[in-house]
Amino acid sequence: MTYVFNTVEEIEKSLRCIAAILKKKGRDILSNYSITPPQFDALLLLNESGNMTIGELSNKMYLACSTITDLMDRMEKNNLVKRVKDEKDRRLVRIQLLENGQRVIEAALAKRQEYLREVLKNFSDQEIVQLEKLLAKLQQEMKE
Amino acid sequence: MTYVFNTVEEIEKSLRCIAAILKKKGRDILSNYSITPPQFDALLLLNESGNMTIGELSNKMYLACSTITDLMDRMEKNNLVKRVKDEKDRRLVRIQLLENGQRVIEAALAKRQEYLREVLKNFSDQEIVQLEKLLAKLQQEMKE
């Protein structure tokens, strides 16, 4: 029991380190597309949840509205997003993901897969399948 | 081969989703300590790399110096960090982690372990040990 107790500590640490390495790797990948990680996070959020207001993005990203406004100004300039009026309430301005933003997301995700494939080259097919199963189970349990 | 190819895609997706869930969970945990995720990220960086300047934190966190300055003002008010003069170059101001900041880090990490222990309750001991081994190997391969 103590053994498994310590193992959980190790798993927490590994998951945290892997997330940090993937975050850093993600940043390196993004530098090829001239966007910053907060910009990419905003793109993923817009892709996931649809058009959002500055206030909603501010809440989800835990950054001040003024910071989000700056972010969106730069992203609008780079043709990644655009400001649009809300269809139901014309007084509301929402941020919309543009095709160029969508392309950046897809390209960055493809690069992440490529990186992971390289990292897994010393894993046997059996280990890869095992890892996939255990991570899918972990993800499932986390969602419940 | 195609099978394993798709499996890698699944692993990338799972790792990304798990990281996002852990990030969200981490935020919920942090709300108990009245600090925001960017503040916690700054604490972890200071804990890992020692005293840093606003410019260094700005680089590592990919946020503008003005944003980091605001962040540090609030964290200094909450007794998490303090500004100190660099020992070698007295003109440089560095941010130092305080005991209170250290305590927040430790408490938050303990809560993360507790959460993971709960999530793993439907895993057999064998699965937990397997997961630990595979994640340790993955982490190792990523570092190389």
Would you mind describing this structure in some detail?
The structure is a homodimer of 144-residue chains. With 144 residues, the first copy, chain A, is mainly alpha-helical. Chain A has a single domain (2-143), classed as Arc Repressor Mutant, subunit A. Chain A is 72% helix and 7% strand. Chain A has a two-stranded antiparallel ribbon. In chain A, a hairpin with a 7-residue loop joins strand 1 (81-85) and strand 2. The first copy, chain A, is elongated. In chain A, 26% of the residues are buried. The model of chain A has no long low-confidence stretch (mean pLDDT 91). The interface between A and B is large, with 52 and 52 residues.
Largest interface: A-B, 52 and 52 residues
Overall number of domains of chain A = 1
CATH fold name of chain A, please?
Arc Repressor Mutant, subunit A
Indicate the mean pLDDT of chain A: 91
Oligomer kind: homodimer
Count of helical regions of chain A: 6
Question: Which features does this protein show?
Answer:
homodimer; 144 residues; mainly alpha; Arc Repressor Mutant, subunit A; 6 helices
At a glance:
2 copies of one chain form a homodimer. Chain A is mostly helical and 144 residues long.
Secondary structure blueprint with pairings:
The structure is a homodimer of 144-residue chains.
Chain A: H1 2-31, H2 37-49, H3 54-61, H4 65-77, E1 81-85, E2 93-97, H5 99-119, H6 125-143
Antiparallel strand pairs in A: 1-2
Helix pairs in contact in A: 1-5, 3-4
